[in-house]
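To fix ideas, we close by showing one paired sequence and structure record:
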Amino acid sequence: MRTRSLFVSSLLGMALLGLAGSANAAGKITTVSKSITVKKQSNGTVTVSCSTPSGYVAPLAVGGGFQAALPLEVYRSRAVTASKTYTINGKKVTKTVAIGWEVAARNHSYSASATLGVSVQCLTGAPSPKTTYVQQVATSSTTVVNGQSLGWAPACSTGVAIAGGFTGDVSSNTDPAAVRVYINELLVDGNQHYIQVDNETGGSKKVTAYTYCLNGWSGTSAWVGVQALSVEGITQPGCYTGTIAAGGGWQIPQYLDGDVGPNPTVIQVTRLDNTSVAVDMDPGAPDVYPPPDPTSWGLANCISAP
């Protein structure tokens, strides 16, 4: 059996902490949510947006998440964006900025509908609201051939990496499955967000990774990781004192070339409160591969706070 090595970092009890650059120590995050029903053997998309606070050019969407009832499989989780113009150092500049969150999933059931929910984390309290923004940085779409595993990480050229997203190619309602995202995390050794995917769909798929960069905000961003030691595969990673939870991610085991092992499905990444995130990695067939699965980790994305 071969699995990808998931972490190279310092173990702090049952949690891991990684620093990812520099975001100001004044802010408040609120969560806005919405849900839809996805019909059997269909794809569904749901979006939600932040409102624009008084004095801001645009909303500050600093993270997002989802709740996907099995047998839904999420193949897209990314920011909703808009083009906005800011005046910075006396010059007008136009940026593609994050204002909400979008999630799409495939319902594999032949008999029943399922509920798909999306949430977005909205930041207020920027020290310079007219010049603070969350810019999207995206790689070009990458074609992942059947049986291939790839990972890549778009980098922030300015600002602080605070979140990331992905979108896979599900071209029609008859597609059998989405490309599986095994890793969805902020990188601790660079101002980037990393995804790793595996394509076992039977055909080539296009996948895009996104990094979201908070500009005009000084301080730090970080992630905290917790092992999935519960039978249900549920984790609740919490942010440390002085930081607030802005979203989450995951690392789940990857089995390649006929290897046998648990194949968790990420069905929930939601912000619980100012300090914690819920990440649910359903263990699959517990009668065959008894949980808990210590190689699965839920991650919280945290930014500096008062």
Q: What stands out?
A: Confidence is low (pLDDT under 50) at residues 1-17. Residues 11-304 form a domain with the Jelly Rolls fold (CATH 2.60.120.690). The radius of gyration is 19 Å. The first strand starts at residue 11 and ends at 12.
